[in-house]
Amino acid sequence: MSDEINCLSLKSRFRGYYPVVIDIETAGFNCHTDAMLEIAASLIAMNDQGDLYIKETLHFNVEPFEGANLEKAALEFNGIDPFNPLRAAVSEKDALQAIFKAVRKELKHTGCHRALLVAHNAAFDNGFFQQATARAALKRTPFHPFATFDTATLAGLALGQTVLAKACQQAGIEFNNKEAHSALYDTERTAELFCFIVNRYKALGGWPLAIDTPESTEDNK
Predict the structure, then answer these.
(1) Angle at 197 between CA 20 and CA 6, to 5 degrees
(2) Which residue out of 32, 113, 144, 181 is catalytically annotated?
(3) Catalytic annotation present for 113
(4) Per-residue confidence at 211, pLDDT binned at 50, 70, 90?
(5) How many Å apart are CA 134 and CA 143, to the nearest integer?
(6) pTM
């Protein structure tokens, strides 16, 4: 397989890591004590031109774990009623197992060896994600335990904006503030933003990397 074809594969683009865009809605800021209430995960794919796009998004309303703290201010902010029966909420374990199953399928399909969590202010989401994984006693996780891609940082570099809504606006991605702060909506906007930044970098000539050959090096002398 040629170097050009290798560059047009998801496996080669991120050194064997598979990006999964995650957003988590919570009942507070403390990942050790506060409940995870929603989680969504967008799976990413690459087309024949080497551009990223959203392949599929999974979304789950989540039951607060036993003994979880529920901060009133957080619930008022995101508008979630954790005990509304219409939420059809599932356990943390069921939600994570479904996401892990879908991610493992993509790892096999793309030839990647591990998933990387992508999120806006990724340290926050990854903290809740890792704590929920530990509570569910899921030993075989396809995700790297601490390495992430942070779209707030990437957007600050590429677009001069770190707030998700403003970064999307700068990228020409529609963003409705009335729909924000739901895991499904925020995940898909974050995934669109991540794909935009990666694709834009490629379009500007940043990828694939130019590899110097003995001939090209000689020509540049």
Answers:
(1) 70
(2) 181
(3) no
(4) low
(5) 13
(6) 0.92
